[in-house]
Amino acid sequence: MTNSLISEFDTPYQTPPFHTITNKDFLPAIQFWIQKTELEIDGIANLPVAANFKNTIEALAFAGQKLDVVCKIFFNLNSAETNDELQKLALEITPILTEHAAKISQNEKLFQRIKIVFDEKEKMLLSEEQSILLSETYKGFVRNGALLNSENKEILKKIELDISLNSLEFGQNVLAATNSYYKHIENIEELQGVPENVLQQYATEAKNKGLKGWVITLQYPSYIPAMTYLANRKLREELSLANGRKSFDGDKYDNQNIIKKIVNLKQKKAEILGYESYAQFVLEERMAKSPDKVFSFLNELLTKAKPFADKEISALKNLAKEDGITDLQSYDHAYYAEKLKKSTFDLNDEELKPFFPLEQVEKAVFDLSEKLFGIQFSERTDIDKYHPDVKTYEVSENGSFKAVLFVDYFPREGKRAGAWMTSYNNQFQLLGANHRPHVSIVCNFSKPTDGIPSLLTFQEVTTLFHEFGHALHGMLANTIYPSLSGTSVKWDFVELPSQFLENFCFEKDFLKSFAKHYETGEILADEKIEKLEKSKNFMEGYQTMRQIGFGLLDMAYHTNPGEISSIKDFEDEQLHKTTLYPINPLTSMSATFSHIFQGGYSAGYYSYKWAEVLDADAFSYFQETGVFNPNTAAKFKILLSSGGSKEPLELYKDFCGREPKIESLLERAFGEI
């Protein structure tokens, strides 16, 4: 049988032919394309003519495109539709790819050609994008050990492999631990306070497991409503403990030793490359530039947010006292926050959910994209997909093809938790053709049940807008080189488009255009929209402290932490400044902190708050000029389409004529400071 990953894809826009791909295809296909890529690399390294930008830097930028596509398919499926065979394959494929990457980055002949071009850059007439590609290529090789001696190159290669394998195992453990737990309930009295549609969801989950009654899992669409509405405090505590002990209870999915290994390996990597810490190594290539700048930024926010957070928790404690609770705990937070929100704004998530059926919210974000950036979406049923839940769209602009968009909204056992945007193919320009991207949004929203569509909480509405902002960054990309395309920007700049788009969820006229009851068609009342706007910053102090805590913990792990004897003790020590509830000695958030131990946020979690400064400032500029001002939108579209082809601060200044101000975030979050 032909391996479809080795031949050209005979599909619309060369999208992945998912229905013809088997798990057994991946390893031979990756080995095949590695061999082809290494022949390309050897050809560049051994070219018998003098090195120049075109025959070395540009040639390298376009090498390995097929391998990149196959790897994207494999690792995206391993996140969104995995199984035991794929997970085993990942453990086999990761070392092969690590070896391949090291072979390229430590190719001395290739690096010498790169260095020749880099050293002569002042003599060349390069465009800004070409200059950035040259600089990024040279630095990339240096930061991957090109200047090390042969012994240290081998050590670094082993470190990189160990980091990759441990990170992979970390993520697999979190997924397995999440899937291994469920709470079976047979007495409806235990579920007092849970809305009817959530009860239906729990009943469906029980039915799927062949059980009578109701089942609550640790998947977010199941767990979050339980923690928000369950009047049964003992059950809230039990669920919270189960969630907090994921990969932290000494079983086969425990991540504590893996965390220690990853942290130590990253520190060793930094030291062998000449850096004091992994954070210093990472931040050299970020807008923040240094650990000191990050700590200063986070601590400034902490000082501003702490009084607001203390006031918020005090209000929850007063509310809990009415129920005889004098020792408010973290597992009480969502329940009493929802009560306070209801009493303060006369709003609750379940009341709002009927106004936000998923299809309406999706159409709203499509309409917004057309209004701002002139792009249209049409569903395609002939584009292959990896699961029946997935939908595919052709994206166009002025009648011309712009991108393919995959959307995958619902949870399942083979999908990791959370929400993310990814791609199956980058945008780039080669030989006069503009190769357009294939972008994907993956979420975990409640599935439709018994004639009721998927209804989103307002937070899930903003989540969809957030991920769609990332998708726009990818779909609007218009650079020459794939490594500078779309979301390939400085990490603390990448959240700007996503967080920026969330702001539109609070624009009254726009909200009224899609917030309509799924049964009656009734538009969400002005009164409710005004309350939504007023509630925008509800618990903002608490949320800010929580994010700052995660950011500080991340930085502590990656700023030369020394020998960590206890993950729990280390975590507690770092979080004590931002913790607003008593710490549970039996739980740990580090054990499931996938952003930094599995994803790419190591020494970078602060970037969420950093980007909030950018998005608050950018949206305030939109508000100054008119939220739907076409000229302002056109300038922001240029920012999005430029990817990493220009320095982010320069892109931002081109957009609104000045540097971003932290005051924009503080004013939005807490009012006048």
List the helices and strands and how they pair.
Blueprint: H1 23-45, H2 53-61, H3 65-80, H4 84-105, H5 108-119, H6 128-143, H7 150-180, E1 182-185, H8 196-208, E2 214-217, H9 220-229, H10 233-244, H11 256-272, H12 278-283, H13 291-321, H14 333-345, H15 349-352, H16 358-373, E3 375-379, E4 391-397, E5 400-408, E6 420-425, E7 428-430, E8 433-435, E9 438-442, H17 458-475, H18 496-502, H19 508-512, H20 526-534, H21 540-557, H22 567-575, H23 594-597, H24 607-625, H25 630-641, H26 648-656, H27 662-670
Parallel strand pairs: 5-9
Antiparallel strand pairs: 1-2, 3-4, 4-5, 6-9, 7-8
Structure write-up:
This protein is of the alpha+beta class and 673 residues long. Helices cover 55% and strands 7% of the residues. The protein contains 27 helices and 9 strands. It has helices spanning 23-45, 53-61, 65-80, 84-105, 108-119, 128-143, 150-180, 196-208, 220-229, 233-244, 256-272, 278-283, 291-321, 333-345, 349-352, 358-373, 458-475, 496-502, 508-512, 526-534, 540-557, 567-575, 594-597, 607-625, 630-641, 648-656, 662-670; strands at residues 182-185, 214-217, 375-379, 391-397, 400-408, 420-425, 428-430, 433-435, 438-442. Helix 1 packs across helix 5, helix 9 packs across helix 14 (333-345) and helix 24 (607-625) packs across helix 27 (662-670). The longest helix has 31 residues, at 150-180. The protein is globular, with a radius of gyration of 25 Å.
